[in-house]
Design a protein that fits this description.
Largest sheet of chain A: 3 strands, mixed
Distance between the termini of chain B: 20 Å
CATH class of chain B: Alpha Beta
CATH topology of chain B: Glutaredoxin
Radius of gyration of chain B: 15 Å
Largest interface: A-B, 12 and 15 residues
Radius of gyration of chain A: 12 Å
CATH superfamily of chain B: Glutaredoxin
Strand content of chain A: 25-35%
Order of helices and strands of chain A: HEEHE
Strand content of chain B: 5-15%
Number of helices of chain A: 2
Shape of chain B: globular
Number of helices of chain B: 6
Number of domains of chain B: 1
Strand order of the largest sheet of chain A: 1-2-3
Number of domains of chain A: 1
Number of strands of chain A: 3
Largest sheet of chain B: 5 strands, mixed
Oligomer: heterodimer
CATH topology of chain A: GMP Synthetase, Chain A, domain 3
Distance between the termini of chain A: 32 Å
Chain lengths: 78, 136
């Protein structure tokens, strides 16, 4: 079962300079909530920012990871 | 193979539904009976703006979701489209709702809401419904 630490480290490994805060939303190990800050988000729309994070997990989203709720920020913006 | 043909028919029907409805939500369940908390929250945001929207339940056939995600390059449900463009899933829609951007995107005035419209989602007729029916 995925845990918040795994989700966090995979995001931070895959997206250069990213920092992620991840919590298990329901305690069930399949609904997570992540706040991700990454320089790569600068100049991208929210949709594109979320796509970058979802892309880290590919087919696992909707499968092994039932839900990953996202908030994305680029470092220069609050 | 017939499978492939059916998939491309489903994809065409989804695309047609997106093209034909200015505001369309692909969700789990229906606006009256959402089958997932994320879908429920997205519907609630739209309804509180008194937005009119079409809704498609993706649950009757897993291929609807597959083909939708192939079109939108978005892995999760719900998905809100406005004027043919993916606006986002639950997180983005709620963020935009809170910032007032959602009302703007929907063309609804923030300070002066339009006439209270009946919150009746339009059924999605035509291609997709036919395919869904045929698959039952």
């Amino acid at each position: 079962m995925p845990d918040p630490q795994e989700i966090k480290s995979r995001i931070e490994t895959a997206i250069p300079g990213a920092s992620a805060e991840v919590e298990d939303w329901t305690g069930g190990g399949d609904h997570f909530r992540a706040t991700v800050t990454a320089p790569a988000f600068a100049g991208r729309s929210r949709i594109e920012q979320h796509r970058l994070v979802y892309a880290v997990f590919g087919e696992e989203i909707g499968g092994r990871i039932h839900a990953l709720s996202l908030q994305t920020r680029s470092p220069d913006k609050p | 193979m017939s499978d492939t043909t059916e998939q491309s028919q489903i994809r065409d029907a989804i695309q047609k539904a997106i093209d034909e409805h200015r505001v369309i939500l692909f969700m789990k369940g229906t606006p009256e009976a959402p089958a997932c908390g994320f879908s429920a929250r997205t519907v609630a945001a739209l309804q509180s703006l008194q937005a009119q929207f079409a809704a498609v339940d993706v649950l009757p056939d897993p291929r609807i979701r597959q083909e939708l995600s192939a079109i939108s390059q978005w892995p999760t449900i719900p998905q809100l489209f406005v004027a043919g463009e993916l606006v986002g899933g639950c997180d983005i829609v709620l963020e935009m709702y809170e910032s007032g951007e959602l009302a703007q995107t929907l063309g609804l005035g923030e300070s002066a809401p339009p006439e209270p419209a009946p919150i009746e989602p339009q059924p999605v007729a035509g291609g997709l419904a036919q395919i869904e029916n045929r698959l039952r």
